[in-house]
Amino acid sequence: MALTKRIIPCLDVDRGRVVKGIRFKDLKDAGDPVEQALTYERQGADEIVFLDITASSDFRETVYEMIKKTAYSLSIPFTVGGGLRSSIDVRKVLLAGADKASLNTAAVMNPEVIREGAEVFGSQCIVVAIDAKRAGPGRWEVYTYGGRRPTGLDAIEWARRAEQMGAGEILLTSMDYDGSKDGYDIELTKAVSRAVNIPVIASGGAGNPEHICRALVEGEADAALAASIFHYGEYSVEDVKRHLKGKGVSVRL
To answer: Helices 87-95 and 64-73 sit at what angle, rounded to 10 degrees?
Structure first.
C-alpha cells in the first residue's frame, strides 16, 4: 500500500505571533501560534511546522518557551526551524519538545551540521528547508536568511547533497509562488521529488484544495504544507483531506 499523503499547516512566527506574507514580504498578523496549532490538530492535521522566520536574518534565538508550550499542547509531530545554527541548537529544540528540526541557512553555511544532526539524533529528526527561486528554464537558486540572500546553489543539486549528508526530509518552498495562492510550483516540486529518495514537502502557493492535490499527484510530493488558506479560515484541514479523498489520494481522515 502507498503511504498516506500528509497535510501540514505551517506557523510562520515573528516575535511571538503567527504571520503570513506574499513572497516573503508584507507580513500580516494571523494569530497565536499555540491556539492555531491546537485548532489544526483538531481539524486532522498530520503535523505542524513552526518557523521563526526572522530568527536567521535578525540573528535571534528561536523562542524556546513558545516551542515548549506548543509541543506540550500537541499529540502530532511538530517541526521547528528558524535561527538554528548548530547541532547544539538542534538539541535545544528537540529537548524543548519538537520532533524534528528544520535547517536552512545553517545547512548551506555549514553542511556538516546536517551530518552531525543525523548522526547524533537520527535522520528522521533532520529536515533541510530549501527556499528556491527560479533562475532560468529548469533551474532554481537556493536563498538563505529568510529569502534575503542568493547563494548560487542549484536547488536540485542541493537537495541531493542534503540527502547524502543525512537529511531525512526536504521542506521545499517556491519563493516565486509563496503566498500567491496561485498554486505550487509543480515543475520545481516534481524535479526535486524525483531527484531524492527522501520525503519532499511541497510549500508555497496553496490557494485551494485542488492546488494541494496537484502538488501531491502531479508534483509527486509526499506532503503539502500550507498557511494562508488555513490561517484565515478559507478552508480547514478536513476540507482539504475530504477533497483529496474524493480525488483518490490516500490520506488519514
So the answer is: 40
Sign of the four-CA dihedral 92, 97, 100, 105: negative
Q: What cell does 186 get?
A: 509543480
Strand partners for 100: 79
Which tens digits make up the pLDDT trace of 141-159?
A: 999 988 899 999 999 999 9
With cut-offs at 50, 70 and 90, classify the pLDDT of residue 59: very low
- Cβ-based burial of 28 (10 A; exposed 0-12, middle 13-18, buried ≥19): middle
Segment 42-55, tens digit of pLDDT: 999 999 998 876 66
What does the block give as the cell for 160? Answer: 541531493
Q: Which residues pair with 224 in a beta bridge?
A: 7, 202
Residue 179 has a CB neighbour count (10 Å cut-off) of 22
252 in any annotated domain: no
pTM of the predicted model, to two decimals? 0.91
Domain count, the chain: 1
Residues with a catalytic annotation lie at 12, 131
Is residue 1 in some structural domain? no
pLDDT digits (tens, 9 = 90+) for 196-209: 999 999 999 999 99
Q: Which domain holds residue 35?
A: 6-246
Q: What is the CATH number of the domain that holds 89?
A: 3.20.20.70
Cα separation of 20 and 6, whole Å? 21
Could you give the dihedral angle defined by the CA atoms of residues 144, 146, 78 and 63, in that order, rounded to the nearest 10 degrees? 120
